[in-house]
Amino acid sequence: MVLLLPASRLFSLVEMPPKLVLLIGIAFVWWLIRMDMRWRRLPSRPLWIVGVWVALASSRSIGFWLWAMGLRGGGSSNLEGDPFSAVFNVSLFLIAILILNRRGFRWGQFAGANKALIAIFAFFLFSAVWSPFPFPTVKRLGQELGCLLIAPILLTEKDPAASLRVVFARVSYVLFPLSVIFIRFFPHIGRVVSEVSGSHMVCGVADHKNSLGQLAMVFCLVLLWDLKETRTSGTAPRTKIQRWARLLNLGIGLYLLYISQSATALMCFLLGLGLWLVGKRLARMRNAKAVFVASVLAFLCLLSLEQMYGISRRVSQAMGRGEGLSGRTQIWQKIMEKNTHRLIGAGFRGFWESSEGESVWRELGTNRLLSSHNGYLEIYVQGGLLGLFILFAFILSAGLNAADKLVKGDPFGRLAVIFWPILLVYNVTESAFLQIGILWFTMLLVTLDTSSQYRRVRTFTADSPEVGWAPVPGT
Predict the structure, then answer these.
(1) Whole-prediction pTM value?
(2) How many independent structural domains does the chain possess?
(3) Which of 262, 145, 254, 151 is nearest to 202 (CA)?
(4) How far apart are CA 237 and CA 94, in angstroms?
(5) C or N terminus of the chain, fewer CB within 10 Å?
(6) Is residue 121 part of a domain?
(7) Are residue 6 and residue 54 in the same domain, yes or no?
(8) Contact (CB, 8 A) for 440 and 147
């Protein structure tokens, strides 16, 4: 019953000095991690790189956390980004490249197996040619490309599925408790003001209530999968305290999903649970791929109907959010009025820095907008109709990969048919395509095609054995 209390009433039960609460919270985080370490190991040291990236993709930039700790001044440009984050991310990417080269990773084969994904990145990289901000365009896209360097580290482990579960679980042990603490005791970190309505929102370690909802939704789904897989395989912890630690952490995540008040994240979480239940049945179908392709076409039809008949207004009314999806409809209409680059767009992240983008939020009378709150519309203003075409090609390719993994019994198959549709639905009212975020990164992790180019082998380094993959001879 305590978890069902409103956030204000729950937090008022405890009044303690913020710094003391933070120390207690850090100790609690360490206890959760120690409980996990007692019954399973991190498969390899390079997974620390993946863990750091997952944590930063789920929360705020390294530059923000340095500012929060008083180690640097506040201030970064929306156009140029945060230089501290750029340097830190580039360092991670260089380490990732060294690790993958050491494992014999073949970049050409990886690109050939994921043509649609490479095509959309290549297109937006080329958009620097017509973008009004060419150098920032290249820098921003370079940061987004990091997911293609970090993900293969996990995918080239001996057991990628087990590696994903342990990395995500341990990152959640850090993000979940700290979010609760920041919301109550450090409001300058854990709460923000809405750029549209001006209302105060909880955000925890994230930068927005919707980002907090996305964080909680993704991690809770992975934690449920982890609970199921460890129980099925007989590798679950044996002591009660270790089992209760995992359930407690999941409970904190569900609580954060509730107080985030992100209707999109909650709807996607319920969708994920439903897809989890039908996953086995879909895997047994002979025409599983055809069913999945049909679902893509059905989704595209729904998008068309939305534009023609305004289905979202009826859904919004049913969810008690008025006729405009919390102001989104007005934003979308104004964006369509102001966008003048219909064929090739304004370049990657170029629209909101242009005079057209600024006129949107000025005429609507909102605070500064940096997103259209619709992933498909965001790709349209950045890449035009050509960008949308490449995006839909990638969506179809990822969907086919997801169905193929499920049918072939790939360990990621069940997650792939969950997170692929979730990403499509999420982007109807939020923007997550080609953005550093945990939903985009997780979807890529479980749908990337690497199986046809590599086989698992055990290799040895000079100091310790490392499990990895090696290229198939003759390929």
Answers:
(1) 0.87
(2) 2
(3) 262
(4) 36
(5) N
(6) no
(7) yes
(8) yes
